[in-house]
Amino acid sequence: MSTLLVNMKQLKIALVLSLALLPFTALGKGVYMTPEAFLATAFAPEQALIESLWLTDEIRDSAKQILNHAYPGLRIRYWHTSEGAGQRTAWIMNEVGKTRPITIGISIVNDQIERVRILEFRESRGAEVRMPFFTRQFVGLELHPENRQLSDSIDGITGATLSVKAVKKAARFALYLHQLVASDDSAAGEQVVVVP
Question: Which of 117, 94, 101 lies closest to 42, judged by CA?
Answer without folding.
Answer: 117
